[in-house]
Amino acid sequence: MSSTIFFFIFILFLAFALLSLNLLLAPHSPYNEKDSSFECGFSSFLYQNRSQFSISFFLFALLFLIFDLEIVLIYPYVVSAYNNSIYGLVIVLVFLAILTAGFVYELGRGVLKIPSRQSNNLNNISIVPIASLPRTSFLPKGLTKLNLTQKRLYSTKSEKYQQDEFFKQIARSLREGSSLESNNPFIIANSFLKRYPNFEIAKDNVNFEIIHSILSKHIPNFNVTESEFKILRNIIPKRFELPIREKGDFIEIVGKYARNGKSGRPGVYVFINKKNEFCYIGSSVQLANRLRKGYLGSTLGNRKINLVLKELGLNSFYLDIYILPENFINALETDKIKHLTLFLEQYFILCYNPVYNILKVAGSSAGRTFSPESIEKMKIAALARDLNGENNPMFGKKHSKETLAKISASRKGRKLSDECKAKLRKALSGKNHPLFGKTHSEESKPKNLHSQSTKKGIEVTDLETKNTTLYPSIRAAARAISCRDVAIHNYFKQNQQKPYRGRYVFKLLK
Asked: What ranges does the record give for the region Disordered, renumbered to this chain (predicted)?
């Protein structure tokens, strides 16, 4: 038998013996990391990323390499050098015995045993829900600038709602895993964004069902079909550099500023930070009005996106516009168009997880409702609000003749209901009365007496009933026909010839 044939036969039997030994012993000492999705020494930790290489992997890899090289290189050399004699075979067997004994010794010491970090400590792990950890507001009190290196927050909590029971309920449901999640749109949206926090992993998981489940629980009578969603998803955006320089192109896309309740162009707008690609997503059925008043005008509010625009300037942002196709919305009612724009906005929110959006549910501001008591209080407060002096929006201004004519025409035939009069009396009574706690000065008292002594009577002719009535003063006549006394004063001041309201003719009595 030649040395070459002996070499191949011996190696074949040796390999078979080692493989059999491995198959016999391996099931009794399983290594869990081998079954995980991580290889080459990466261990899978709960809620953590990959770990670094362990030095143990280098140790046993080196031993296996030496073992393999000794067999592959030294054994053929020994066999060929001694012409396959018994002496050469003995040398090889002694070498293998020593190498095997050393290897068994190392195995017995456990040098190659790497504790599984998946199984050993799994029963002792205490899983703490993320929602139960203490949260911090994005902007503490008194802070007007943003730290763009701050970690992204996926909470619906904002500074002004810290004491709101609604958000306490959301946090409590996240901690306890209650059934509120299936009924609260904010929790559904936040849970999705925590599971898919960026576009790459969210784009394939955003579907019609998840968007509809959010908005149908947030907006009454919400109705958008899956076929409509497919049309919305295929809208191509138009990008603008800020500030807007080509206003003609911009107006052509978003439409002109809509006045007097006229409908504008509906769609979604996205402000994108050029530096870090953080974004803000919003929608409106009148894009031109929303952008002009809220973001591109001279006055900005104190929301997160407004603070960022103030600090960085418009030139640090792109503006992407998604316009709903006209042939798609021509025959639709306004409420339906609102639903479509909100659906598209929610789609982008779930895809891009916008950092500058405090609330992750589309239409949150519009969806806020007030109790009848709150509405009544706001009405009274608005009526009693002090608008004198510089606080008056018309301070230092005058209406043109055309504007005055339009105002007069709009008020003709208007009558205040008894309920409205009662509200006005209530709003101007007590502490709200302009003379509450005040007295007339000595100078004003003679003036009041003089005005009362010089007041003139007035004759009012009703052209419908053909009756003529005499009143001691203009105020008395105004009260009788349910109008303001200033209207009668203007009638004489402007020498009007037409009957007031097309019905009354006034004549001063000397």
From this structure: 433-455
How many C-beta neighbours within 10 Å does residue 332 have?
15
- 323 membership: H or E segment, kind and range: strand 317-323
Q: At a CB cut-off of 8 Å and minimum separation 6, what does 220 contact?
A: none
Do residues 116 and 210 share a domain? no
Distance between CA atoms of residues 290 and 283, nearest Å? 8
Coil, strand or helix at 273: strand
Q: Domain of residue 210: give its range.
A: 196-380
Residues 388, 216 contacting (CB under 8 angstroms): no
| Residue that terminates a domain, selected from 101, 122, 143 | 122
Clarify whether residues 358 and 231 are in a common domain.
yes
Q: Which residues contact 305 (CB under 8 A, 6 or more apart)?
A: 271, 280, 295, 356, 357
User: In this structure, how many other beta carbons lie within 10 angstroms of the beta carbon of residue 97?
Assistant: 10
For the stretch 203-247, pLDDT in tens is 889 999 999 999 998 888 899 999 999 999 999 999 999 988 888
Contacts of 132 (CB under 8 A, 6+ apart): 174, 175
| Token duo for residue 345 | 């906005």
Closest by CA position to 14, among listed 105, 77, 75 = 75
Number of domains in the chain: 3
Q: What is the largest CA-CA distance in the chain?
A: 152
Two structure tokens written together for 436? 């509450």
Question: What's the pLDDT tens digit per position in 145-171?
Answer: 444 444 444 333 344 444 455 555 555
Q: What are the start-end ranges of the E strands in 51-128?
A: none
Q: Select from 265, 247, 269, 258 the least CA-distant residue to 322.
A: 269
Q: Is the pTM of this model over 0.70?
A: no
Cβ neighbours, 10 Å, residue 118: 16
**Interatomic CA distance for residues 335 and 221, integer angstroms:** 10
Kindly state whether residue 60 falls inside one of the protein's structural domains: yes
